[in-house]
Amino acid sequence: MSEIPRGLFVSVEGIDGAGKSTHIDGLARLFAQQGRRVTLTREPGGTPLAETLRTLVLNEPMDPLTEALLVFAARRDHLQQVIEPALARGDVVLCDRFTDATFAYQGGGRGFDRAVLSQLEQWVQQRPQGLREPDLTLWFVLDPRIAAERLSQARVPDRFESQPLTFFQHVHMGYQLRCDAAPQRFIPIQADQTRELVWASVESALRARGVLT
Ligand code: TYD
Predict the structure, then answer these.
(1) What are the phi and psi torsion angles at 92 (to 5°)?
(2) Is there a domain that residue 213 lies in?
(3) Alpha-carbon gap, residue 202 to 167, rounded angstroms
(4) 105: CATH
(5) Whose CA is closest to atom 8 on ligand 1?
(6) Which residue lies with its CA nearest to atom 23 of ligand 1?
(7) Is 111 contained in some domain?
(8) How many CB atoms lie within 10 A of CB 111?
(9) Pocket test for ligand 1, best of 13, 125, 160, 167 (most atoms within 8 A of CB)
């Protein structure tokens, strides 16, 4: 009987316009080529309930605590219905954003109390074995001014994309704080290069971490 591979939880982060979405499908293909089963998902979202919450969070006016509660409610459902079962089967879970986005957007961008976010993180992600967190986090790092230029050519903005530059500067600082607190988990990827060079950085960083054969 062949051994079940150990599940691997990879989150992908960055400010809006940093280009993370461009590389997620490539990452899924890369892991599949390695013979891994891949669960590709996103936050807020990933389950019918969490996708409903996503639509509310991205479109309806609400106060910062309500926003934080909704993203963590969505995360709880997503963890229980999708992420934990996939990791238990040995999948690579590729998640377009996770809790670092909450600390960056709600904590940094909105200036919401990080102690409350930490409390919610404990409630939602604590297991007997410890806090459920990604094994690796690919953080696409881009100057918020360049990201804003890229976004201005994009679609109709949601509640976050329509925020001013200073909001994204605070989001960026929020990510930096999380990166500084967990340097073994975070892989910063400099995203101010061509798509090919960014992809090459992603691949070589994953090889260096030993997650690609
Ligand atoms: P995003 O991941 O950029 O998806 P799309 O490519 O479809 O726009 O959009 C999700 C938005 O939700 C993004 O602006 C960040 C925000 N967000 C939070 O504010 N808090 C969170 O905890 C998460 C996961 C996302």
Answers:
(1) -90, 120
(2) no
(3) 27
(4) 3.40.50.300
(5) 16
(6) 101
(7) yes
(8) 12
(9) 160
Centroid of ligand 1 to alpha carbon of 58 (angstroms) = 8
Token pair in block for residue 53: 């919450």
Q: Is 2 inside a domain boundary?
A: no
The ligand 1 atom nearest the CA atom of 161: 14
Residue nearest to atom 21 of ligand 1 (CA): 102
Domain assignment present for residue 3? The answer is no
Residue 100 — φ and ψ, nearest 5°? -60, -35
- What integer pLDDT is reported at residue 22 of this predicted model? 87
Q: Residue 39: beta bridge partners?
A: 93
Domain that holds residue 197: 8-208
**pTM for the whole structure:** 0.96
Q: What is the CA radius of gyration of the chain?
A: 17
Say yes or no: CB of residue 121 within 6 Å of ligand 1. Answer: no
pLDDT in tens, 56-67: 999 999 999 999
Place 2 in a pLDDT band, splitting at 50, 70 and 90. Answer: low
Write down the pLDDT at residue 84: 98
- Give the residue-averaged pLDDT of 193-211: 96
Whether ligand 1 lies within 6 angstroms of the CB of 11 is answered as no
109 lines ligand 1 (CB under 6 A): no
Question: Buried b vs exposed e over 98-108: b needs ≥16 C-beta within 10 Å?
Answer: bbbbbbbbbbb
Residue 51: strand, helix, or coil: helix
Structural domain total, the chain: 1
Q: Is residue 97 in contact with ligand 1, taking CB distance under 6 Å?
A: yes
